[in-house]
Design brief:
Blueprint lengths: L8 E2 L19 H4 L11 E6 L8 E5 L20 E5 L13 E3 L6 H4 L16 H4 L2 E10 L4 E3 L13 E3 L15 E2 L6 E2 L18 E7 H7 L6 E5 H15 L4 E7 L8 E9 L4 H9 L9 H13 L38 E7 L10 H6 L35 H10 L17 E8 L4 H13 L1 E7 L2 H14 L25 E8 L7 E13 L6 E6 L7 E2 L4 E2 L21 H4 L7 E2 L5 E4 L2 E4 L20 H4 L13 H9 L30 E7 L4 E8 L5 E5 L5 E5 L8 H6 L13 E6 L14 E7 L6 E6 L7 E7 L16 E7 L2 E9 L20 E6 L5 E6 L18 E3 L9 E5 L4 E7 L11 E8 L16 E7 L2 E9 L14 E7 L17 E2 L12 H13 L2 E5 L19 E3 L2 E8 L15 E8 L18 E7 L6 E3 L7 E4 L2 E6 L15
Parallel strand pairs: 1-53, 2-13, 2-15, 15-16, 16-17, 23-29, 45-46
Antiparallel strand pairs: 3-12, 4-5, 4-11, 6-7, 6-8, 6-11, 9-10, 13-14, 18-19, 19-20, 21-22, 24-25, 25-33, 26-27, 27-28, 28-29, 30-31, 31-32, 32-33, 34-35, 35-36, 36-37, 38-39, 39-40, 40-41, 42-43, 43-44, 44-46, 47-48, 48-49, 49-50, 51-52, 52-53
Length: 1176
């Protein structure tokens, strides 16, 4: 099978045809938050380096250990249900005063949670309690049996009865000793279990691969213990507290490989040694705990030496300090190769993820990493960190060489940077290591008060690609350990195609700059995002002169790694300074250009409401009353929804901390110097679904003056200067101010959605000279929708980018927009006639009804069942078609999250046709008569033209995206060919619905009021590609083509083409594209379709189909006329974005699907696809 990068598609050179593992959720992010996002080949390797220096012997008073035989109560608040097992998605401790997420203890059927097991699946002898009884918490993948429907599902509690539904864990699956009565496997129906081994024992039930998520369980009694002020206190050293926290972490987690290192004894001071090699934590926990208990606080703090030894271990190199360290020789067959010289590397495959977690309570002492040792690390440039820290911990003499900001330097941060950017396992003793194996480093400061030491730990984490965590208690350590383990399952990705700007000086071409909105899934409410700039470049073969497009980085190098389909480790985006940002979302890009002085605005005044449109009392956002500043008295606790919130930074009111954070400062001291709260906060929210708007204000052809407007889910609209990536301003709507404290604290729970929709610009360049001049009547208006964040549409005037103004807000559910649901449907800015007057309007669908998230069959909605045309200047509704407007109303029962598809079929510059798709599997057409001189409202007719869904769950096909449309001049007559695909965007892991790609003929190519509903019975099943051959002779091919021509269109099943009739969840989740008779459709298949690169998490993968619009045959040369020859496989995993074609001046058309770009060449040339582009 060909890959997308190998494709030489026969496409036309025309213009666009259209502008960690929490529980699974009813959102498209479930591909990252369900089991399907877990690592594909092996457990992550985590080496914990524990500080065993003398200062770790310092004691403090802590609670005595938890005893499950005792009953505890919350003495300062609401106690948890005494018989309840609470669960969370992120590992954060539940608050029993608000949490209802718990089930009855009697419903827990997970034997592994309450009984100790070995890694081989046998019970530990002598018997031992499981971690839920022993330490009060347990983590596993969990499913719940709905006894009313007789089906296994994700764990969720909506009623009291559901607290009694049986809860099972993945660890019990296939274990003959678990649960008793031979209940090895779960199954739907009956009592929920079977003793029969399924066909594939590794995947015994589909709920484990889609639905059941990893949950952290907490015994209600354990939570009460943590909040019980009467529990006796005992005196424990820092080291004893660390050991207790490590034990809780190891007992409560599965599917990770963990090792343990310590410092050398004080008498020797020779680095450190491996206390326990990196192994599956379930393999021999007792041995791990035995070695853990032997740790003593009797050493100095040779941070760089012990870190260096860890690198030798990961790299399979010759042991150094481990051969010298005391107490005892730590060389064993588990750590060393035969001969006792080379380490046995824990890296077992190319895809292993590797981590070092370094915990310390002070500055380095007796730490000397000499030049000889540095030379062992290939490419390590540590000459500037000539370490020779030989002082005792009591001395204050420090090395003159410094890390980035610390007064201390011992090469620790340089080593972490080397491990993060270099191949740590390049030697022959380490097997199966094509490519580079890197290490991510996290640091923990336990009771760390020395400012220089804190900063050194921060620098080490930053350079090592990880995070720094301060901790002051055993409980905080446990929480940190859980966060670190969850972070090993995060993925860098993008749902978006690159944004390109139309060349304002030549509107038939594009500029060659590419802008990517990126995000990184996280375990909390807030996900990190970024905007990065690259260029579209062309490589020319010196012999064949063939041109190949590629995405170029700041240095002119290829930015995308062809093996992953994502940005390579060494690529450097524009605006990035310092080290290469590579594939890391949070590094480089616009985030890199943020400063401590930012122009952050909101709106604090009142509105005047008129028929669902809300006009602000003061539209000038630069007014002092709208400044995001703690000095702004208009930003009250009530407006921020933080009334009564206690301090989270000692000595600073919560409101001040929040507003400092919201204005861009490191108000929680997470990034900059220790205990400093005025450094820059280098963080941007995720633009999960938002496409940016690129606006050219002027400049020249070679140096255009341009701004990128990007919306994010922490509630910000950002304006970035594309020359240097610096932020011009950002704006947080008043309605999203209460979400700021959720984003700042990031305590876990549901994903936060704010401005989740795309930004659309109306650039009114009256003179069409490529420059915006307000005095000439030019203006730039932005329209920002919320998608899953809410029901509003915001309009801003950014004609003067330094003086943004809030024009108005459409609020769904009110006035003339009562029917407007979540604003998923991207706004179109178009022109129509209203009587004799020309009017610029906004055209958009009624949005999304969130009840569709859980609708498994075709279910009517209560909102979103309409189409709107609004005045682009005032926001006033001019017309609507559907439940709250003009006809048709009978068939429009389903919400419309799809963008409305507008056409100008007459070529006069005015939109006269709309195609509308809904989640009920229907297509409607509206025709607009712009020549009759009548009002707009009386000039529109419409009706349903397609219905392809059914009442059964397998037929619940939905349209979340519009069709693309082309005028086809075929032997059977002219028609508008509509290309579209179905797919459940809210549940991409769904594998029940039988989705398809459709081509439908709308033979009404001129304005008409005739509307006939077609169904699948009117279309031809072209799945088998008989028209293209597939074993058929010429006569059979001709007959098939005749059948297709006679039908009103065709469809293709998205089943398993290698096993026809088997449905694997493949679906269309983006807009299609038509170019000169070629239908380009991307599809997504969940984790049953493995990602091309096995080193990436198994988040499913994508294909791109290239189909002849006439008969669905392959639209490029093929050696085989089989079904698989109609598509190519995308390299990058995840949901593929909408195909995008870029045409630069003097260049050739380039097709990009996300970060994968390829030439779009002429090929069929037998029919012309055309439409008339409307100037905005």
């Amino acid at each position: 099978m060909k890959n997308f990068h190998q494709l030489k598609a026969v496409l036309a050179g025309l213009l666009f045809s259209s502008a960690v593992v929490p529980v699974a959720t009813a959102e498209d992010i479930e591909i990252y938050t369900s089991l399907g996002a877990s690592g594909t080949t092996s457990n992550p390797n985590i080496m914990f380096i524990v500080d065993t220096s003398g200062s770790m012997g310092t004691k403090s008073w802590v609670k005595e250990s938890y005893d499950s035989s005792k009953t505890y109560s919350n003495t300062s608040g609401t106690s948890c249900a005494s018989n309840g097992i609470y669960f969370t998605e992120t590992g954060k401790l539940p608050d029993c005063s608000t949490s209802t997420d718990y089930f009855n203890r009697s419903a827990l059927a997970c034997d592994h949670a309450v009984v100790g097991y070995t890694a081989l699946g046998t019970k530990i002898s002598p018997p031992q309690d499981g971690s839920l009884l022993m330490i009060g918490t347990y983590s596993d993948q969990l499913a719940q049996f709905d006894s009313t429907k007789k089906k296994w599902r994700e764990v969720k509690i909506g009623t009291t009865a559901e607290r009694g539904y049986e809860v099972e864990c993945f660890s019990d699956s296939g274990n003959t000793t678990a649960n008793g009565n031979n209940k090895e496997y779960i199954k739907d129906g009956g009592t929920g279990y079977t003793g029969t081994v399924p066909a594939d024992p590794k995947v015994p039930h589909p709920v484990w691969s889609g639905g059941a998520g990893n949950l952290q369980l907490f015994d209600g009694n354990y939570i009460n213990y943590l909040n019980d002020g009467t529990v006796p206190l005992v005196e424990k050293s820092y080291l004893e507290q660390v050991k207790s926290a490590v034990e809780v972490m190891v007992r409560g987690n599965t599917r990770v490989d963990i090792g343990l290192m310590r410092f050398d004894s004080k008498t020797q001071s020779n680095g450190g040694a491996i206390q326990y090699p990196i192994l599956d934590v379930g393999a021999d926990r007792n041995d791990f705990f035995t070695r853990l208990k032997t740790l003593q606080d009797d050493s100095y703090t040779p941070l760089s030496e012990v870190y260096y030894e860890a690198l030798l271990y990961f790299g399979g190199k010759t042991a150094d300090f481990s051969k010298l360290a005391n107490p005892g020789n730590q060389v064993t067959s588990k750590t060393m190769m035969s001969g006792g010289k080379l380490f046995r590397s824990p890296i077992s495959s190319t895809c292993d993820k590797n981590y070092i977690v370094l915990l310390s309570d002070g500055q380095p002492t007796k730490d000397d990493l000499n030049a000889t040792r540095k030379s062992v690390l290939t490419g390590f440039n540590g000459g500037s960190c000539s370490t020779d820290i030989t002082t005792d911990a009591w001395d204050d003499n420090r090395d003159a060489n410094k890390s980035d900001t610390s007064t201390i330097d011992n090469c620790l941060d340089e080593l972490a940077e080397w491990a993060y950017t270099n191949d740590v396992a390049e030697v022959a003793s380490v097997k199966a290591h094509d490519g580079a194996q890197h290490i991510t480093t996290h640091t923990i400061g336990f009771e760390l008060s020395d400012a220089g030491a804190v900063t050194l730990m921060k620098d080490t984490a930053k350079k090592g690609g990880g995070d720094f965590y301060p901790a002051k208690s055993e409980a905080e350590l446990i929480d940190i350990f859980n966060k670190i383990i969850a972070s090993t399952l995060q993925v860098n990705t993008t749902f978006s195609s690159p944004a390109v700007s139309v060349n304002a000086f030549n509107r038939s071409t594009h500029l060659d700059n590419l802008y990517f909105t990126l995000f990184k899934p996280g375990e909390g409410n807030h996900w990190d995002g970024n905007l990065k700039k690259y260029k579209l470049a062309t490589a020319i073969d010196p012999v064949t002169k063939e041109k190949t497009p590629f995405i170029a980085d700041k240095l002119g190098n290829k930015a995308v790694d062809p093996s992953t389909g994502f940005f390579g480790d060494t690529s450097m985006s524009f605006w990035t300074t310092g080290a290469a940002d590579g594939k890391e979302v949070s590094a480089g890009g616009a985030v890199n250009a943020l400063t401590t002085t930012r122009n952050v605005y909101t709106f604090t005044g009142g509105y005047t409401a008129s028929s669902g449109v809300y006009t602000p009392s003061n539209k000038v956002l630069t007014s002092t009353s709208n400044a995001m500043d703690k000095a702004n008295a208009s930003l009250t606790d009530a407006l921020l929804d933080i009334t009564g919130y206690p301090e989270i930074v000692t000595g600073t009111p919560y409101r001040e901390t929040l507003l400092d954070w919201a204005s861009g400062l490191d108000a929680l001291s997470e990034y900059g110097s220790a205990n400093t709260y005025t450094d820059v906060r280098p963080q941007m929210g995720d633009p999960l679904h938002a496409e940016p708007a690129l606006v050219q204000y002027g400049g020249t052809l070679t140096v255009p003056d341009m701004v990128a407007y990007v919306a994010t889910n922490d509630g910000y609209l950002h304006a970035y200067d594309v020359d240097d990536g610096k932020e011009i301003f950002s704006f947080v709507p008043q309605e999203l101010l209460p979400d700021l404290q959720i984003a700042m604290e990031n305590n876990g729970g549901s994903k936060l959605y704010g401005l989740d929709g795309s930004v659309v610009a109306w650039v009114n360049d009256v003179g069409k000279d490529g420059s915006i001049d307000a005095s000439a009547g030019d203006h730039v208006y932005l329209y920002v929708s919320m998608r899953r964040g809410g029901k509003n549409i915001y309009a801003l005037d950014v004609t003067d980018r330094t003086d943004p103004q809030l024009l108005w807000v459409i609020k769904g559910g009110t006035g003339a927009y009562t029917e407007l649901g979540d604003t998923w449907s991207t706004v179109n800015v178009e022109k129509v006639k209203d009587g004799a007057a020309e009017k610029t309007v906004l055209i958009f669908g009624g949005g999304y009804d969130e009840t569709q998230d859980n609708a498994l069959v075709r279910t009517p909605d209560s909102v979103g069942r309409t189409v709107y045309i609004a005045d682009a200047v005032t926001g006033a509704r001019l017309w609507s078609g559907g439940k709250d407007g003009a006809s048709p109303t009978t068939d429009m029962e389903y919400s419309i999250p799809a963008r409305v598809k507008p056409l100008d079929i007459s070529g006069d510059g005015y939109v006269d046709r709309l195609y509308v798709a809904d989640v009920g599997g229907q297509i409607f057409r509206y025709d607009i008569n712009n020549t009759n001189g009548s009002s707009l409202a009386s000039s529109i007719t419409g009706g349903r033209i397609l219905d392809i869904a059914g009442s059964a769950d397998i037929d619940a096909r939905r349209f979340y995206y519009p069709p693309d449309v082309a005028l086809v001049d075929a032997p059977d007559g002219k028609y508008h060919g509509l290309i579209m695909s179905t797919g459940f965007r809210a549940h991409p892991l769904n594998d029940v619905i039988r989705d398809r790609i459709y081509m439908v003929k709308d033979r009404n190519t001129s304005l008409t009021s005739t509307y006939t509903t077609l169904t699948e019975s009117d279309l031809h099943d072209a799945t088998d590609n008989l028209a293209g051959g597939n074993g058929a002779d010429e006569a059979a091919r001709d007959a098939e083509k005749a059948n297709i021509a006679a039908a009103e269109g065709w469809y293709i099943d998205l089943d398993d083409e290698n096993n026809p009739g088997t449905w694997i969840g493949e679906k269309g989740l983006s807009e299609p594209l038509i170019l000169e008779g070629v239908a380009i459709v991307s599809t997504y298949t969940p984790n049953t379709f493995a990602a091309t690169n096995s080193c990436e998490p198994n988040i499913g993968g994508g294909k791109v189909f290239f189909l002849d619009i006439l008969d669905a045959t392959p639209a490029y040369p093929s050696n085989l006329d089989l079904r698989p020859e109609r598509h190519q496989k995308l390299v990058r995993g995840g949901i593929p974005p909408t195909p995008n074609v870029i045409i630069t001046k003097g260049g050739e058309p380039t097709l990009c699907i996300g970060t994968e770009c390829q030439s779009a060449e002429f090929g069929l040339g037998v029919r012309k696809t055309y439409w008339f582009e409307v100037e905005k």
